[in-house]
Amino acid sequence: MDAAEKIAALSRRYRDYVAGVLSEIVKIPSLSGDEEKVIAKLGEFLSDAGFDEVRVDPLGNLIGRIGSGPHKLAFDAHIDVVDVGDPSQWDFDPFGGIITGDKVLGRGAADQKGGAASMVAAGKILKEIAYDGPFSLYFVFSIMEEDCDGMCWNFMIETGELVPDFAVLTEPTNLGVYRGHRGRMEIEVYFKGRSAHGAMPHLGDNAVYKAARAALEFDRLNRKDLGHDEFLGKGTMVVSQIVSGAPSLCAVPDRCKIHIDRRLTWG
């Protein structure tokens, strides 16, 4: 049996194991900035699997290593999640980690704790087949991706904690192998007005109304052609937050901010 056949056989054997790992880490709420407990749990899994090195960098990212080859290949999964919103709108406990059939249910099961669990299992398999290839394999469980996209890797590269030659992200792709993704911009637009008493709004200049008109224009712009690439898809933009300010709730707001999430395609 060659290495590929061994890996395939072990993958089938560890099917329930990886589901169990995923269930356990889904049960641990890990909103951006509050990942310490799930990092600790994943560290236990890596140690139990026999990783050659397990450490947490100064920012809080968990890094496991297998092998000591001259080339560095990194696998990444962010283990923070967004909030659940209104729990009553869920059909199941978002932090229950319920295993049903061939699925694990819960917040982050797909994005991206599923990738994290698969990395744990992959490392376990690599140790079992005594991997000694030309790569140092790094398994990175990164934090604060949802709120601070890219900050964790910027920290690792800028500080020299880990500068890989190649990287594979375990974001959900319906099991497709993707070679890239759209870019992202965060844009804040500020609107200024003039406050006045709520009983006499005609004396003021309502910043919220200005922002609302602009938000509708951004929506119209999104419906137009913002660029399209056969692989990457369509460029998009969405108003993801509106924040206003006024001296009180009975006054015309004199300031408002729109936050735009812009996704960039090729060209």
Please characterize this protein's 3D structure.
With 267 residues, the protein is of the alpha+beta class. It has 2 domains: 3-169, Aminopeptidase; 183-264, Alpha-Beta Plaits (2-Layer Sandwich), CATH 3.30.70. Helices cover 30% and strands 26% of the residues. The chain contains 6 helices and 12 strands. The protein has helices at residues 3-13, 15-26, 36-49, 113-128, 151-159, 207-223; strands at 53-56, 62-66, 71-78, 98-100, 103-105, 135-142, 166-169, 183-192, 228-229, 233-234, 236-245, 255-264. It has a 5-stranded mixed β-sheet with strand order 1-2-6-3-7, with helices on one face. The chain has a 3-stranded antiparallel β-sheet with strand order 8-12-11, covered by helices on one side. The protein has a two-stranded antiparallel ribbon with strand order 4-5. Helix 2 (15-26) crosses helix 4 (113-128) and helix 3 (36-49) runs parallel beside helix 4. The model has no long low-confidence stretch (mean pLDDT 95).
